[in-house]
Amino acid sequence: MSRFIGSETEYGISTPDDPTASPIVTSTHTVLAYAVATGASLRRTRWNFGEESPLRDARGFDLRRFRTAPVIDPNTVGVANVITSSGARFYVDHAHPEYSAPETSDAMQAMIYDAAGDLVMNRAVDAVHQYTARDESVIEGQPPCPALKVYKNNVDGKGASYGSHENYRWNRSTDFDVLTHAIIPFFVTRQVLIGAGRVGLGERGESPGFQISQRADYIEQTVSLETTLNRGIVNTRDEPHADADRWGRLHVIIGDANMSQTSNLLKFGLTSLVLDAIEAGEGFSDLEIADPVAAVKQVSRDLDCRKTLRLADGRELRATAILREYLARCRPVSDTDRLVLRTAEELLDDLDVDPLRTSDRLDWTAKWSLIRRFTDSGLGIGHPKIALVDLQYADIDPARGLHHALVRRGSMRTLVDPEMIETAALTPPDDTRAFFRGEIMRRWPDQVLAASWDTVVVVGDRVTGHHRLRMPELDCLTRENCGELVVRATDAADLLRLVDERKLAPVDLIGGPGR
């Protein structure tokens, strides 16, 4: 079975020349400028919020009191939105530009499409700069946007943390409580492989120091529905964007935003393999940690990876030893699975000897290696130059970011050619419903009234109303089963008619007379 995966990245955005500029407005500049630069009209597709249930909890209750407004003007400051030709969503989320990658069917694809978000963001910044150079603004009634800097990180150094979230489809035949208890020790310990590294200890970085994870200091509970406060190791948001009777969506908020392709591949790949094992009935109760919330911070601050965690049964194990237990119980099926396990085993071996041996593959050790050059020469860990290294590592600008410099120098390994990421920024995956979403947006963007992850609404006429397509399965409407229809169709409505004739997905009418 494919483990469908998606990712969401909220980027840090700043205006060095105008620190008072509103990040909500500057984020809106990026989304609208990208929309225009890529050929989308300003009368473009809205996001269909009516299909979303962010307050439904996997434990069996719903906190939503009011219905969500079904569609919102995609040009409005603070809620600007564009659906890309790759099937991704690029929009403003609170005070951040956010890229939500299209659905993918394995960890390698998930890593590639997550990296494609950096290209989308860079192109958006370039488009904004072109407006500013002409002394123009893409937002009506707003002055030109100041020069922008964008970072793929999770903290602003002032107490705020923003998310890099993962999403995994899971089978409802697995009890969610069983899944939760089985995966918590994995989430506590996986940071030694996927942490992005952070200067500062505490939510505001009030104490000097360096730690493995950017998110560790913001985890307060074992389980929680919230994503912006009282964050849990396991998030219980139950919004599957699929047949809710068959599938759940594990919404993971404990991960860091990664620049390293290896860290990102392991983040998606190991989590998928552990979920496979849990669904297959593999037990992990012997790995239960006595105090998992405290352990998250303990692991993050153990730069030598040598301290032990107390388990519920009284044993003491290192984080690397707990991860080895997870790896031993995973059963690889694909080449990607085997690559993930082999890479993880090699890295755990190196971490046990000297974590800095992994600095050519992992984000946190690459960053720590750079910082050690300053601290070894006498600079204190609390010096502003150290904080600048932390920030510049996450700079997504290829000409200025330290991670990009390490790649160019051959000091940071990559897994795929840049051309694959370039393609992913513009082209959807072939084997998920993102193929249909991306293709209909590429060919007929002005004819798509609204969309969500599992619906597309196409403009109709005043007699029949609009046409709504539902995509309840993530592997429906792939290139294999509808690619030929996409080529044959004369417009978006014709494509939905062909899909309906083949009974590939349900189509109904909405918004006509009497509806």
Automatic annotation (TrEMBL):
Residues 1-22 are annotated as: Disordered. The keyword Hydrolase applies. GO terms for molecular function: ATP binding; hydrolase activity, acting on carbon-nitrogen (but not peptide) bonds, in linear amides; peptidase activity. One of its GO terms (biological process) is proteasomal protein catabolic process. The keyword Hydrolase applies. InterPro entries: Pup_deamidase (IPR022366), Pup_ligase/deamidase (IPR004347). Keywords: Hydrolase. Belongs to the Pup ligase/Pup deamidase family. Pup deamidase subfamily. This is Depupylase/deamidase Dop.
